[in-house]
Design goal:
By secondary structure, the protein is mostly helical. The protein is built from 14 helices and no strands.
């Protein structure tokens, strides 16, 4: 059941691919932190971790080998093809950059530039400044209105060949503009991390309610009516492992998306899918401690 659930998760949303690594780590963490009723540490966490790693990785390996046999590419999806072009083709705005493209890729680069001009795509990069906001807003236009139609015009309706050519051009452009690409990734990462809260309505609601209860409890502590307790005090090993997995998934998924795409809301929602559960736990824990503090104050 675990293997099927994990396989389904990264098939539906490839940005959850880090779960293949996170799940075994979280499992080992839970075992190492856990105690049996006799007080002894749980045994053989490494063996359990290896079993989880095998169950997590083998279905992915089989799928990637099947994909290699069918389309000639080893991987869950081609993160560096269509997706990366949305970022990379912005570097083609200067004539000098077009001349630095290898000869075999130059027709594609020129066709993309012509398509961008035809579609009226705003230039995000100039000699004077870099407009990261326009760069992100151009993303879908760069992929579906300019790059893909240009590639189809050159190579025909052959998605595998189109993806390969686009990936080659994108890697060349990024390799020649590493500094600007890294600056874009940092701006993209900031937007993605902010999107964890911005696009997570459940997280906003649970988090706001929990923080309000926390403030009430702190007010009681300040008045000497309740002792201070951390919101996560005496958390169970399972909860600690879940919390670690939730944070690792959120951070790693946002980073993965930031390298090849812009934050489109749904990516942040998927990356932060476990965070509302933590916020709800915090809320109910705060409510219990606030209730206990009120009872002590009434005595």
């Amino acid at each position: 059941i675990f293997a099927i659930s994990l396989f389904g998760a990264y098939q539906v949303r490839p940005a959850t691919l880090p779960l293949v690594v996170i799940a075994p780590v979280a499992g080992v963490l839970i075992l190492r932190l856990g105690k049996t009723r006799s007080g002894r540490a749980a045994r053989e966490p490494c063996v359990h971790g290896l079993k989880l790693a095998a169950v997590s990785a083998l279905p992915l390996l089989v799928f990637c080998l099947l994909r290699l046999a069918v389309v000639g590419h080893f991987g869950l999806v081609s993160f560096g093809g269509y997706n990366l072009a949305g970022i990379a083709v912005e570097f083609l705005d200067s004539g000098a950059m077009q001349n630095e493209v290898p000869q075999d890729l130059r027709p594609l680069a020129q066709a993309i530039v012509a398509a961008r001009e035809r579609e009226g795509v705003a230039h995000a990069i100039s000699e004077e400044r870099v407009d990261f906001r326009a760069w992100r807003e151009n993303y879908n236009l760069n992929v579906w209105k300019t790059t893909v139609p240009a590639a189809v015009g050159l190579y025909g309706d052959h998605p595998v060949e189109i993806n390969r050519r686009i990936a080659e051009l994108s890697r060349v452009l990024i390799g020649q503009n590493k500094r600007l690409y890294l600056l874009f990734v940092f701006a993209n990462l900031e937007d993605g991390l902010g999107g964890l809260l911005k696009h997570g309505l459940a997280l906003q609601l649970w988090g706001a309610a929990a923080f309000m209860f926390f403030l009430f409890r702190i007010l009681l502590v300040a008045q000497g009516k309740a002792p201070f307790q951390g919101a996560m005090a005496k958390a169970s090993p399972a909860l600690q492992g879940f919390a670690a997995a939730a944070m690792l998934l959120a951070l790693s998924s946002v980073l993965l998306v930031s390298l090849v795409e812009v934050n489109l809301g749904r990516y942040s929602t998927a990356a932060g899918v476990l965070l509302p559960s933590l916020a709800s736990y915090w809320l109910f824990r705060e409510a219990r401690m606030l209730k206990a503090a009120c009872r002590r104050g009434a005595q």
